[in-house]
Amino acid sequence: MAQNSEQPVSRQQATLIGSTAVVMWATLALLTELAGDIPPFQMMAMAFTIAFALARTGMYWRGIKSVRVPWAVWAFGIAGLFGYHAMYFVGLAYAPAANASLINYLWPLLIVVFSALLPEEKLAWYHLLGALLGFAGAVLLVARGGFDLSSYGRGYAAALASALIWSSYSVGTRYWGDIPTETMSEFCGVTAILAGLCHIFFEQTVVPQSNAWWAVLGIGLAPAGASFFTWNIGVKYGNIKLLGVLGYGAPLLSTFLLVVFGLAPATWRLLVACLLIVAGACVASLPMVRSLFSRTT
Q: Cα(201)–Cα(98) distance, rounded to whole angstroms?
């Protein structure tokens, strides 16, 4: 097993690093909108190819060679990255996008619950309450209409699978804490290949037009690139339950960006969702807030 090249970080620093992934994921909807009508698997293949190339370039300049890891880790990482995105896109294809997205956004709540299975981790009432408040905010943001299981059951099942895969991957990453984060570069490369094969078999190629290339590059740099590296550090060394609750900030920030760029209206739902998600994050981080308050008094 390769030696971990990461510098030790504190729990607070790792949590902060991991939270940047949420900010980067929030840009995905805007960048996807700007990229135009590129099929999802084609977008995955392009974005993860960019992420792989940039990560490998960074490793080369830092003098880090290829990382050797057990096959179990390979299977785990690829299932996390490719499996999550594949199931999410299948969910969007076979069910209404808003409802499929809502089911997918169970992953932050599931992270909070599943984290109780980790050594030295306990699930307190404020963690669960914070996650539920965040989920309530997500419901307001994306829920539209009812759930027709008879017509869209396959899509909803895929969306639920995506939530289970990502939450399991995030919590399971803590078990592989001695695996260097640089391994993510290879996971990105394999994910790009698998997405490319899915694109060849299931989609028609669309060539991005003019400025759309910048949006594709942006997706490869952040929401499909650096975010997975910072999230990896966060869930390995940080407060994983708090990160789970903060995950609900992604749909909130995403909606704000769409409003700012004139691609979505500002509504009362957005305001109430903001209050619920912020309240959830504050409740989930109650011990941290108490600690900071005691230091200032």
A: 26
Write down the pTM of the prediction: 0.87
> Domain extents for the chain?
11-296
Question: For residue 40, how many C-alpha atoms fall within 13 Å in the half-sphere facing its CB?
Answer: 14
The whole-angstrom separation of Cα 82 and Cα 99 is 21
35: its two tokens: 């990229």
Count of beta carbons in the 10 Å neighbourhood of residue 37: 9
**Token pair 């607070």 in the structure block, residue:** 12
Residue 154 backbone phi and psi in degrees, to 5: -65, -40
pLDDT digits (tens, 9 = 90+) for 240-292: 989 999 999 998 898 889 888 888 788 888 888 888 888 888 888 777 656 65
Q: Among residues 152, 166, 169, which one has the least CA distance to residue 91?
A: 152
C-alpha to C-alpha distance for 267 and 278, rounded to whole angstroms: 17
At residue 2, does pLDDT exceed 50? Answer: no
Q: Are 25 and 250 in contact (CB under 8 A)?
A: yes
CA distance 64 to 57: 10
